[in-house]
Each structure stands twice: as structure tokens, then as C-alpha cells.
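Hello Y.,

Per our agreement to keep a running log of every chain we model this quarter, I'm adding this entry. I've kept the format consistent with earlier entries: sequence first, then predicted structure.
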Amino acid sequence: MFKGSVVALITPFKDGRVDETAFQSFVEWQIDQGTDGLVPCGTTGESPTLSHEEHKRVVELCLEVAKGRVPVIAGSGSNSTEEAIMLTKHAKEAGADAGLVVTPYYNKPTQEGLKLHYKAIHDEVDLPIFIYNIPGRSVIDMTVETMAELSKLPNIIGVKDATADLARPMLTKLAAGEDFCQLSGEDATAIPFLAAGGVGCISVTANIAPKMCADMQRLFREGDLAGATAINDKLLGLHTNLFCESNPVPAKYAASLLGKCAPDCRLPLAPISEAGKAKVKAALEQAGLL
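Predicted structure for the entry above:
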């Protein structure tokens, strides 16, 4: 069920509020373009600045549009175990296919703390769970050994690996088994991640180039490495420059240039700079999208 190009959805805002119409139109466009899966309320969806009510509503809006056509992996993590359980319970009740649970940020738990955190969520909610390992934001890094131990729990089914360590998927495959679903969380290394044992990418770039990202993943699965690489070469500017400033500021600006939503982000994210705008525009032109 979980493979290919899975988009880490932006959350459009208008006048400070979630733009529900723009969001649902954006989700429909993603599905029409061939996106293989949807992730509402992740980092790219500005989950840290969504209220609980907004978070739940965005997940529900996404599911209303998806209607089972593609899987929905709802962002449901927190640095509070109780809050993560609450959000994962909602994801289950709303009809999501899985939850994406980030390693607890700021608290800096030990590896034992990580095990206890994920086991508590697993035991409270009967929903498939992806571990989201992103040391660059969470500071902590879940070890391969910890992940392999958690993979023994029946509903811990995979990982969004945003370490950019290309030895990691190979080590994880050996430790957790080939059935453990490994999705890259880093666009620039998506193809080598596939070669190392991954099955897809939870992508920021797919917000802006959904068809190209989906085609790239499909071509790799079909054995056409040259075709997949040719697409990736065109997307490299986006992979890089959508992170020229804090995510999702550049991605939202790019989406605004495509007429998909306003570029607005919530504080403390600042509006994109003029230098950032130039980089994003150049990347869109390189990809043939402008």
C-alpha cells in the first residue's frame, strides 16, 4: 500500500486561517497528477502551529478528498506521548491508513525512552505507525537497533528516514527485515535510497512537481534507472532550493507561483526573502514548471 511518491502536504492559509477550499483542491490535484499517497499535518504542513482542532480538521479534509483512492498517512506525532496518542487515536477514528509519528523533539529521550514512547502509542491505538526519524529537527537519532526492536511490534510497519545517511536503509533492511517499509524523507537522495532498500519517498518536492515525482518513482520500480535519473536531474534545483529557507516557506511560495494557494506561513516562519524567491523561480524554470 505504501510506496512511490507520497507528498508531505502543505497547509494553505488565508487571512490567518486554514484555507479549506485551497487545501482540498490541492489534494485533488495531487491525486490527479498521480501522487501515490498523502501526508497531512507533517512538518511541511506546519503541524507545530496548528491547534488540535485545526490539526484534526486538516486530516479530515484530506480524507474527504482521498476517498480511499490513495492511502493517507496522518501526521500524529508529538514530543508529548499523551498528545501523540490523542492525535493517533483521531487519525484512526477519521479513517487514516497509518500515522506518522515523529521522534520526540526537545525532550531528548534516550533510546529506551524512544522504545517506551512508541510502544505506548502502539498499545493504545490499533493503527499502522511509521516512525519519523529526523535528527536535524528532533536532535535525537533513533538507532538501527532501536528501530529493529520496535519493528517487532505488529503495527510499527515502517520509517520515514530523513537522516540522509544512505547506509541506513541497508542496515535497517538487514536488521528489521525486507517487509519493514522504508520511505525516504529527503528528496535529493530519493533514488539512491530506493537502490539501498527503500520503496518510496515522503516528498516536499511533490507539492510542486507531483507528476514528475510520481513518474520518477514509477520508472525506478519498472527498472528504468536512466529515465528516473533524467527526471531527478530536472528536479534537483527544487530538491535543493525548496530548502533555501525554512521548510515550508519556499514550497508555499512555489505553490503560489503555480496558482495553488497563498504563500502565507505562520510565525515564527518569516516570509520568503527576495533572494529566496529568485532561487525558487530558477528551480521551477529548471524543472520546466514555469
